[in-house]
Amino acid sequence: MNLRWLWMLFAVALWPGWAAALSTPCQLKETQYGSVCVCNSSYCDYLEQPELQDDNQIVVISSSKNGLRFTRSEGSFLDKNILEVKDHQWIDNNFVADAVVVEQNKVWLQFANVPQRFAINVNIKTVQLTVQREKRYQKITNFGGAFTGSVSHILQQLPKALQDHVYRSYFHADGIAYNSIRMSIGGSDFDLLPWAYNQLPRNDPTLSNFTSLDPRDLQKIEQLKRLKAVAKLSNLKIMAAAWSAPPWMKSNNRWTGYGQLKAEYYQAWADYHLKFLELMQSKNMTVWAISTGNEPLNGVIGFFFVHFMSMGWTPWQQAIWLNDYLGPTIRKSKQSQVLIFGNDDQRYTYPSWFRKMRTSRSTALDYLDGLAVHWYWDEIFGPHCIDRAHAEMPDKLLLNTESCIGDKPWQTHGPELGSWGRGESYMRAYIQDLLHHFNGWLDWNLVLDERGGPNYVHNYVDAPVIVNTTSRTEFYKQPIYYAIGHFSKFLPEESVRIEAITNETESFPQLSVVGFQRPDGSVALIVYNGENLPVNVALNDSQRGAFSLRLPARSWHTVVYK
Ligand SMILES: *[C@@H]1O[C@H](CO)[C@@H](O)[C@H](O)[C@H]1NC(C)=O
Ligand SMILES: *[C@@H]1O[C@H](CO)[C@@H](O)[C@H](O)[C@H]1NC(C)=O
Ligand SMILES: *[C@@H]1O[C@H](CO)[C@@H](O)[C@H](O)[C@H]1NC(C)=O
Ligand SMILES: *[C@@H]1O[C@H](CO)[C@@H](O)[C@H](O)[C@H]1NC(C)=O
Ligand SMILES: *[C@@H]1O[C@H](CO)[C@@H](O)[C@H](O)[C@H]1NC(C)=O
Ligand SMILES: *[C@@H]1O[C@H](CO)[C@@H](O)[C@H](O)[C@H]1NC(C)=O
């Protein structure tokens, strides 16, 4: 008997973590707007990373409107039969069929108690999907969400085991493998109150009272330590941004409204950022990147709509602050490795924001390592403004740093629990951005309560995970969580986008695709079917050959192979 094998069996049997590494299915629950996966202290759904056995194996991970959640199917490039991803049922606005059957390229509906089938009068479409690994584009850096004051506050109220499931669901490889968080320096609207460091004493440019971290940040740090341990994540990329300076530094002496940093405090505001970085470092929470400030236009034009902490910058003013104060302060310090991202505002400010910065300080943009964008108006403003900014600054990273649904007057302010449509909005947005040079995406609040808060100005929105703050015993993973997960879970840092194109016409494509080659050489394709009909996909990879798939209605998938 080989002793090494005996030892391994022994180790497996004794190691309690072993059972936890196995995949567990979603506990699907129907809700007002669709369905969610329910997690409690003793149960939550996870999916082990698919290991590819050989060069011909193909693994498809699927989620659908009708109830698939990270469901695994397998096939082989050697198999000439079509791999059909089977869905639970088929739901139209009017009725529910128990199955959708495709025969001789015609689509039929099957009902459990009715012997005959009903034909939908359509042929199933076949879409060619061509993958060329030789054509390579940008690399992935990070995926994550925001650890706001509200997130920290909600998590703190939960039993430890349930908190751990939140951390594991988001950051562990068996969850959706986030490697990054965004946090505010001081407060944001998703806090119980507005706050900043050194609110007192006033008119104190030496920041004499900013000598230690606020208890709210100390609580976050304890939670982040636990998060890293639970998720087995040694390198958490922390991105930080300030929403507002303490009011005494500002022209309007308020948290919100039309107000900018007073010129006499430009150095103090740079020092404030450095201080935060140093104090975080002293707690072993090294910050990976900062931005020049959250949504600078809120304090210049946005104050008609925005009533939470914000501080205005014009691009011309901000270029002066970055070039003459923040940039040199950071680069000459022991925190010089911290990346600096610019803009941190809506897509429609691209690329003009940076062009204007250049006119007031020609070297200001040299201090920027990356460009940060918020997604809120993406459905109105196309990606071409991003393409132009990228063409002008091709070496700078591009990150989406904030996204959520429910901020618009025409949207439900707060969660639409279980909404597949909201998940699809994310799916379309992630695919679009990744096709337009983006290196990663940081979503907004990791968790919120049933109302979409707490938020100190009642600016309630949706989140991928909603916590039951009434019972404090459950949380709900929404379709948005799985939409993001189809990217973040399967695209580790250093994955490279590769060419993956369909033969559909641009105007009304049924299928959207973005493809990547991962650091281990394997391919991951994210494929989205937005129609109420199944679709056949004729995949042809330049190195691996051809393979056929049938994907159900209203579904998204990650297709993985070597
Ligand atoms: C937790 O969820 C599992 C799976 O749905 C269920 O079997 C179990 O009873 C739940 N535990 C509690 C305490 O509700
Ligand atoms: C320092 O800040 C704390 C609040 O963080 C405040 O209670 C205290 O009064 C401040 N000290 C001075 C000298 O203003
Ligand atoms: C930070 O990490 C170092 C080295 O691992 C350790 O010696 C030190 O105690 C840690 N400090 C804190 C505040 O956790
Ligand atoms: C939260 O839990 C309570 C108590 O179990 C339950 O009545 C309520 O429906 C739950 N909320 C949601 C959104 O499911
Ligand atoms: C794409 O390819 C499929 C399969 O070859 C074909 O049936 C379909 O007509 C093509 N679509 C277009 C728009 O050319
Ligand atoms: C796949 O593409 C290659 C060219 O890269 C081509 O030679 C081959 O015929 C294609 N296979 C199928 C089944 O379309």
UniProtKB/TrEMBL annotation:
Residues 495-559 form the Glycosyl hydrolase family 30 beta sandwich domain. It is an enzyme of class 3 (hydrolase). It catalyses: a beta-D-glucosyl-(1<->1')-N-acylsphing-4-enine + H2O = an N-acylsphing-4-enine + D-glucose. GO terms for cellular component: membrane. Pfam families: Glyco_hydro_30, Glyco_hydro_30C. The keyword Ion transport does not apply. Gene3D superfamilies: Glycosidases (3.20.20.80). One of its GO terms (molecular function) is glucosylceramidase activity. Residues 140-491 form the Glycosyl hydrolase family 30 TIM-barrel domain. Keywords: Glycosidase, Hydrolase, Lipid metabolism, Signal, Sphingolipid metabolism. Residues 1-21 form the signal peptide. GO terms for biological process: adult locomotory behavior; cellular response to unfolded protein; glucosylceramide catabolic process; memory; neuron cellular homeostasis. Its EC number is 3.2.1.45. PANTHER family: GLUCOSYLCERAMIDASE, LYSOSOMAL ACID GLUCOSYLCERAMIDASE. This is Glucosylceramidase. It comes from Drosophila mojavensis. The gene is Dmoj\GI22783.
